[in-house]
Amino acid sequence: MIGRSPRFLQALALIERMARFDAPVLIQGETGTGKELAARAIHYQSPRRHAPFVALNCGALPEALIESELFGVERGAFTDARQARSGLVAAAEGGTLFLDELDSLPLRAQVSLLRFLQDFTYRPVGGTRECSGDVRIIAAANPRFDQLLRSGSFRDDLAFRLNVLLLAMPPLRERPGDAALLAEHFIARHAGHYGMPPRKLHPGSLAWMARHPWPGNVRELDNRVQRALLLSDDERLQLDPAAMAPAPTQDAPRVTPSGARCAALAGYHEAREQALQQFERQYLEQLMAAADGNVTQAARLAGKERRCLGKLLKKHGLQRASGAAAQPH
After folding, report:
1. How far apart are CA 27 and CA 140, in angstroms?
2. Which residues, other chains included, contact 9 with Cβ-Cβ below 8 Å and sequence gap of 6+?
3. How big is the CA angle at 89 (ends 84 and 91), to the nearest 5 degrees?
4. What is the DSSP string of 35-100?
5. How far is the C-alpha of 174 from the C-alpha of 151, rounded, in Å?
6. Which tens digits make up the pLDDT trace of 113-167?
């Protein structure tokens, strides 16, 4: 966790303090702000540091499987349950269970989790024996979590159980100077990984980073640095997409029969359509990079329905690359 802006240092101080107390933590922040890093920092500074840190992405599992993933399953509980299997609560025994994308947790699973948090006992799916779990719960949610609470899509009583300690991770645009520090870190890390000599940032990149809104936050910055490092041989890296794009070729001026010279221009509507197409493609490429190839997350960032975004990606021939990147790691 790298940074020295005031808001980021405040978050670090809270992390250090929260690590001392064995209470549930709710971490809120935009995508790419480092919520899982913060959760790991709390765990590894806590008395539970020598026990496991187990993460579950609540949005990556079907609703029917979340309970068995958390609490395990007894043999014969359903058709494919040929043998008993323990869950993530048992795997995190003595340590920390991290629930990422809490805002994606279905209502049925919310009930089961609330029951567990009341006394930290549970029953594996299909079983009658009661088990106990010694785990600390840390959850992370996107800004839409507050909207879900207001609309009743997320249980208030579960939110109260989890929101004992609240940590807000600041977006990169509210951390002046940190983008440059992080960029230098990512350059060194990726250069070492790919066996390349380290390079410096172009002065123009520093100015651009200071005014860029960073919708994908630190993850977007990491992706931009890696792309610039791999695709450029310049001594200084340019992160500004406009500076990285090749200069457009210009048609030679044509001469009219009267001898007057004029630039070769397309018609207004044709030129406008070309500009819109170019903007769409560049925006989609940047959007998918910020979302790390995840189409669902990209739709959230763009404020569009996933189906509409999928049509745009298909229109520009980006659906295959984005679909491949969206596969679970």
Report:
1. 5
2. 3
3. 75
4. HHHHHHHHHHTSTTTTS-EEEEETTSS-HHHHHHHHH-B-TTSSTT--S-B--HHHHTTTSEEEEE
5. 28
6. 999 999 899 888 877 788 888 999 999 999 888 888 888 889 999 999 999 999 9
Q: How confident is the model over 65-118, as pLDDT tens digits?
A: 888 888 888 765 555 555 667 889 999 999 999 999 998 888 888 888 999 999
For the purposes of burial, counting CB atoms within 10 Å of the CB of 193, is it exposed (0-12), middle (13-18) or buried (19 or more)?
exposed
Cα angle 186-191-192, degrees, rounded to a multiple of 5: 105
Take residue 40 and report the two structure tokens written for it.
Answer: 């790991």
Distance in Å from the first CA to the final CA of the chain = 22
The architecture that CATH gives domain 176-245 is Orthogonal Bundle (1.10)
- Nearest in space to 160 (alpha carbons), one of 130, 195, 118: 118
Residue that the structure tokens 């959230």 belong to: 300
Task: Please give the distance of CA 148 from its chain centroid, rounded to a whole number.
Answer: 19
Q: What ranges do the domains of the chain cover?
A: 6-170, 176-245, 251-329
Burial bucket for residue 133 (CB in 10 Å: 0-12, 13-18, 19+): buried
DSSP at 125: B
Determine the topology of domain 251-329 in CATH.
Answer: Arc Repressor Mutant, subunit A (1.10.10)
Residue 23, classified by CB atoms within 10 Å of its CB into exposed (0-12), middle (13-18) or buried (19+), is: exposed
Whole-number Cα distances in Å, 151 to 145, 155, 205:
10, 10, 42
| Radius of gyration, CA atoms only, the chain | 25
Q: Which CATH class is domain 6-170?
A: alpha beta
Q: What is the DSSP letter of 102?
A: G
